[in-house]
Amino acid sequence: MSLAELPTDDLAVLLVACGRGERSALKRIFDVEAGRLIALAERILRRRDLAEEVVQEAFLRIWTSARQFDGSRGSARGWIYAIVRNRALNVLRDGRREDTVEEDRLEALREDEQMEHILSAWQALDRNSRLHECLAALDDRKRRGILLAYVGGYTHGEIAGRLKLPLGTTKSWIRRGLSALRECMA
């Protein structure tokens, strides 16, 4: 059976073919999955241009690492999506969302305005309220993380990018901050 005759959902066979150096297999994977992979990266990065760049880099990684794929450890689709997701999170974490394009500067200004809005929501709380007191007792980064998540509606990945912290650290700080808030409010 030639690669052109393979069902489009047989990504494992296509990855094995990539490992053997068959470029048509990589093209077939791209044709089948690129649209969804760009959408995944764009949900994480919130920018189409960076999402496309991430997917391009991911396909280079798929091509060079296809021999490492082991179908007994998981699905081919999961392996491919993990490469894109991890690459997008690395870009977010590394702060590569900053470009010198004017539109990007406007986006940064909007983000600063959003942060001011989020912090002003905390400041607008009654200074004598228990919530204001408990939030004030938190470390600044934990407080910012909680406010970004619960007032701004940002995901943990977006917060990690904004605070320039690893995703795991961000999640831990938010979890610990919420635990401290619950304890303080009790």
Structural commentary:
The protein has 186 residues and is an all-alpha fold. The protein folds into 2 domains: 3-94, Rna Polymerase Sigma Factor, Chain: A (Orthogonal Bundle), CATH 1.10.1740.10; 102-185, Winged helix-like DNA-binding domain superfamily/Winged helix DNA-binding domain (Arc Repressor Mutant, subunit A, Orthogonal Bundle). The protein has helices at 11-19, 23-45, 48-65, 76-94, 102-123, 130-137, 140-150, 156-163, 167-185. It starts with 10 loop residues before the first helix and ends with a helix. 26% of the residues are buried. Belongs to the sigma-70 factor family. ECF subfamily.
Question: Short description, anyone?
Answer:
The protein is mostly helical and 186 residues long. Helices cover 74% and strands 0% of the residues.
